[in-house]
Amino acid sequence: MTVEHNAPDDNETTAKVFKALSDPVRLEIVRYLKKVGRGVTCEEVGLAVDITRSAGSYHFRTLREAGLIHMRKDAREKYVTLDYEAFDRYVTHFFDSLN
User: Which residue intervals define the domain HTH arsR-type in the entry (predicted)?
Assistant: First the structure.
C-alpha cells in the first residue's frame, strides 16, 4: 500500500490536526474511540470521558473539523468513529512529510 505524505501546501491541515490533538480531553476522546474500535454515540463517549453535552459538542466539532473523526446521525442519536486514514496520513507519517 502506498501512503501519500502531506504536500507542502497542506501545512494548515497538519497544524489543525495537531492543534485538535493538543487538548487533554480530546486525546481522551480519541483514546476511548480507539479502545472501543467501533462507532459509538456521542452520549456514550461523553459518559466515558466525563464531559457535559455542550463540552462534548465543542470537542467533537474540533475533532471533526480537523478530519480526525466521522459523525453520522441515526434518528435521534449521533454516532462518532475515528478516521484511521487521517491518523495515518497526518500523525503516523508526520516526520516523513518534513522535507
Answer: 6-99
CATH class held by domain 8-97: mainly alpha
The helix/strand/coil state of 9 is helix
pTM of the model: 0.83
Q: How far apart are CA 22 and CA 48, in angstroms?
A: 19
**Quick check: helix, strand or coil at residue 36?**
helix
Give 83's contacts (C-beta < 8 A, 6+ positions apart): 67, 68, 69, 70
The domain segmentation of the chain, as residue ranges, is: 8-97
Spatial CA neighbour of 5 closest among 99, 92, 89: 89
∠ Cα 7 85 14 (to 5°): 40
